[in-house]
Amino acid sequence: MTETTPVERVAALLKNAGFRRIPIPLSIGGLQIDAAAAFVGVSPRPDLIVVGDTLDQTPARLQQTVEGVGRALDMMGSRRPLTLVVVGPRPESSTLTRLSRHARVLPVGDASDRSNLENWLAVLLPLKLPELQESRADDAFDKLIQGARDPLERELIELAHAGATAVSSRLAVRVDEPFVEANDTGARQ
After folding, report:
1. Contact (CB, 8 A) for 76 and 39
2. Tell me: the pLDDT tens digits for 84-104?
3. Which of 23, 9, 93 is CA-nearest to residue 59?
4. At what angle do helices 164-188 and 151-159 cross, to 10 degrees?
5. Cα–Cα dist 18/39, whole Å
6. Which CATH architecture has domain 6-124?
7. CA distances from 75 to 70, 90, 100, 102, 137 (A)
8. pLDDT at residue 1, as a whole number
9. DSSP assignments along the chain, one per residue
10. Interior CA angle at 33 toward 62 and 35, to 5°?
11. Could you tell me if residue 65 is left (phi over 0), alpha (psi between -120 and 50 degrees) or otherwise beta?
12. Please, which domain of life does this record's source organism belong to (predicted)?
């Protein structure tokens, strides 16, 4: 399928993110609901995503669609979050406000630029974390050590390589030291 229309560009991005396209008209609890496209995610993203196209659907029709899907999900006892992705010319603010009463609304416009589309749909897409670079971690460690003025601070930074448990154990020992010494002194008197 080509990605020439905004709906198909959204569809391609969601499919690549692991969402499964479901047939239209959308069938929920025996109700048939028409939309430009629909997708369902799997854990940890269980969203039901309905795509509406303002070139093919009036604002009133978009609202009927999202209300119908929302009510059908409620009747079925579904806990799936509902997201409406709106492609095409952006509806008026009042329309977006009415739509957002029933679903999370993501107006993406014509979605011609993939980067822009990814930005609009980021809430639905997996988080992309930068890869850890050992040299950056070593540089950060060196800067921390160089900036450490207190011997305890330096000791705890050096213990960080051994993990959080090593740091917390050593810190607990150091916090207890004055009290242990005071008890030892008091016991000798």
Report:
1. no
2. 999 999 999 999 999 999 999
3. 93
4. 140
5. 10
6. 3-Layer(aba) Sandwich (3.40)
7. 9, 30, 19, 14, 52
8. 45
9. ----SHHHHHHHHHHHTT-EEE-SSEEETTEEE--SEEEE--TT---EEEEEETTTS-HHHHHHHHHHHHHHHHHHT----EEEEEESSPPPHHHHHHHTTTSEEEEEET--SHHHHHHHTGGGSPP-PPPP-HHHHHHHHHHHHHH--SHHHHHHHHHGGG-HHHHHHHHHHHHHHHHHHHHHHHHH-
10. 50
11. alpha
12. Bacteria
* Separation of alpha carbons 75 and 167, rounded Å: 52
Question: What is the b/e burial string over 109-146, where b = at least 16 CB atoms within 10 angstroms of the residue's CB?
Answer: bebeeeeebeebbeebbeeeeeeeeeeeeeeeeeeeee
Residue type, 139: D
- In this prediction, the residues of the chain whose per-residue pLDDT falls under 70 are 1-3, 111, 132, 182-189
Q: Between the CA of residue 184 and those of 57, 170, 171, what are the distances in Å?
A: 82, 20, 20
Q: Which amino acid is at 143?
A: K
User: For the chain, what are the domain ranges?
Assistant: 6-124, 134-184
Alpha-carbon distance of 34 to 61, in angstroms, equals 10
